[in-house]
Amino acid sequence: MPNAPPTTDATVEARVLWLRYQKEIAAALTVILLAIIGLTGYHFYTNWRNSTASEVLGNAKTEHDYEDVISRYPGTPAGASAYLLWALKQRDEKKFTEANATLQKFIEANPDHDFLPTARLAMAANLESMGKDDEALSIYQLVASKYVNTYNGPLALISQVPLLKSKNRIEDARRVCEEILTKYRMPGQQTEASRDNRMETVWVGEAMRQLRSLKPPEQPKPQPAAAGAPPPVIAAPTVLPAAPPPAGAPTPKKPN
Predict the structure, then answer these.
(1) Which residue has the higher pLDDT, 197 or 154?
(2) Coil, strand or helix at 112
(3) What is the pTM of this model?
(4) CA distance 206 to 158
(5) How many whole angstroms separate alpha carbon 68 and alpha carbon 49?
(6) pLDDT band at residue 194 using 50, 70 and 90 as cut-offs
(7) Cβ(136)–Cβ(158) under 8 Å?
(8) Backbone dihedral angles phi then psi of residue 28, each to the nearest 5 degrees
């Protein structure tokens, strides 16, 4: 009769461990399995929900349609886009106050959205259309300082220039243009002579165009003479006496 192979200590310990903690181990494995199933189901549901929301948004045309997407699919990309498309439709209909209210709801519902600075710029444009230039200028200044490294930063800067010109704040407009020239120029290929060969961005081109349209800075005017001061006396030219003829020179004869 063949002898049974010897059982190792590790095998014995594993069997003892399983017999002693089999309920706990089985429960832990069940939790992990349920977590995997739940995560997979969540991703499937999220993808299905996002896809359905995008389809509904694609068919939206009226105010009621956009409100339906926002209410039924909050937290989805389509739900956030519905705010922006709805605000754009309101702007096209000259409903600037309503459009800004919709954009404000978008900002409150999506504080970390990539299009948040774009929504603020749209609000500023609506304020301009309503003649509220001071409020629009404040938003432009906020976006320009908060979103420097995005395309919204230079756009907010250049949008300030026409408003400043309309208020006759020429020096402020000039300062904004010079700020664009300083911040938003792309480094070009360096030449052997290490010249500054930077390529101009579209913002720099527009800033230079605006600078050319600005009148040059005023030069200090000369101070007028004090009232009652006598005008300077102009001296008559001095007539020098004729030099005497040199010694030994013949005396010129008088005509008869």
Answers:
(1) 154
(2) coil
(3) 0.64
(4) 8
(5) 14
(6) very low
(7) no
(8) -65, -40
